[in-house]
Amino acid sequence: MTHRPLDESVRPVRPHPESHWNRPPEPGKVDPAVLGALLRRHGWQRRGGAAGRYGRWTPPGPAAAGTSLLVPESRAFPDSDDLLGEALQALARSGAPSAREVLVGLAVPSDEIRWWRDVPDGPAGAAPWTVEEQLRGAARQMLLAGALATRARAGYYGARHRRAATALLDHVLVGPASDGRRLTAFVSTDPGRPLAVRLHQALYAVREAIDYQRATGGMDAFDGAVEAGASRELTEALIALVRGTEGARIAVEWAPAAGVPADCAADTEPIEFSPGDLPALREAGARYLREEPSVSVRITGAVVRLRRPGPRGEGSVRLRVLAGADIPYVRVTLDEEDYRIAGQAHLVGLPVRVQGRLESRGGFRRLGGACAVAPVQVDEAERDRLMKSLQETAEITAVFEEACGGEERGD
User: Fold this and answer.
1) Model pTM score
2) What distance lies between CA 242 and its chain's CA centroid?
3) Which among 34, 164, 190, 232 is most buried, taking Cβ atoms within 10 Å?
């Protein structure tokens, strides 16, 4: 069980849209212009058709032989819905990967993020099993870095904003990885467009910063790139994508149904990175980690674990954060009096409030200089929910053992 911050009102939950991936969308809900744009994006070729009425489209590659779609250019003619229905059924029956991608783009308007990795061929053109895992892992790291940048601008996030950023990835669909060399993610424009926009801008900023560093030796451009969304998390994702390859590319293509977002180009070439960029990326990541400052905070949290080496003196407390910082848990070292207050507050079902500095070293998981520990009064219903949540974990045992004078268990 999780709890909202104590001073936050209840917000209505937006239901997740139900999508039926086992059948094509209804013809009446498909814009012919969007269908044509998606076909062109995914390599289909228009090969004639009645001008101003419909176009004949064939798929890329060997699948083109004997396969074609008649797609109306608008709904101005009575047979438009019939043609759309036949085209959608043909896409659903097609074995071409591009057909599936077109259907996904129609079912949920999505910005498409593509990754390519130039990896050496194995025997008979096969690729090692780990190559696909590396591509998927790097792509997920990159999407998470983009999602983090929608929450705040920072050179290093650590544990901050992870919960909200990870939740944003729930609105991302991913296609199959082609031999570990190509992968496409479909980022729903609602609510995922800020992720695609921020990642697009951050990648360009990092590319420009690398070029500047290689030309001048200076790292200053990486500092400015933070405002565009660059971070240690993004440089680590790029390192994972490029490492072990001859080069990698990333492209962001905007959903035709939603149009091009403000301050973004309509036609963008893939952004390329090479093994020669790795030293600059590593140096930038270390710079972001080293220079991200600690943050003064006032945290409200529920005590979930207490530990100290003896019956007296200072001890360590782990809090589940309820308000004051966008992290799930934090560790705090308290003097003897504050440690006693934290233990007593927990035993009676009350959270505590504590001031200190959230330390960047260690990923913003530790509060330094903690002081002013005090229990926070909550209503009975909230106290009951808090107690129930804590009793559902094995961590409560450590607290009760200390209260009974028994031996404490460590983290």
Assistant:
1) 0.84
2) 19
3) 232
